[in-house]
Amino acid sequence: xxxxxxxxxxxxxxxxxxxxxxxxxxxxxxxxxxxxxxxxxxxxxxxxxxxxxxxxxxxxxxxxxxxxxxxxxxxxxxxxxxxxxxxxxxxxxxxxxxxxxxxxxxxxxxxxxxxxxxxxxxxxxxxxxxxxxxxxxxxxxxxxxxxxxxxxxxxxxxxxxxxxxxxxxxxxxxxxxxxxxxxxxxxxxxxxxxxxxxxx
Length: 200
Ligand SMILES: [Zn+2]
Prior knowledge:
The protein is α+β, with helices and mostly antiparallel strands and 200 residues long. It is built from seven helices and eight strands; from the N terminus they run ββαααβααβββαββα.
């Protein structure tokens, strides 16, 4: 599984790199339910989702081109509803809690035709079959989400007040932080302070 980092900006303005490990969890970076998710919400119109997809890990399979994306307002509502259910479900999984039935039902209902990668018969270059719709985006993420149920690698960052969810794709499987630049570093500083505090 290829790594794909995105540059995030915390509410405090700090910029850092984050790899969600899988597309469906990357989608949770667009916002979510409740005050935390709403503070990060970026999907207000169809263009917002299209723009966001241009830099997503869909590119790992084939380049995402704006003209190939066809996102309607209904698509956007569908994606947001799916994403919010996935947020609840993924957080429950990462915390070892039971997933609410209603959230699983939304995920099940979103499974459908996913975006189709194609190969140009002459140039052998890959592209996505147009149009890629919002429904297809949710469908792809829903399939991945179903694969994640029961995974021991789905984690929530161990940082204080950090809610980022990721799939740990590292070989040792010991990833704890959203990013070493952010929560990992804060933890190092805290450990250093508590050690030097104990020594003095
Ligand atoms: Zn974090």
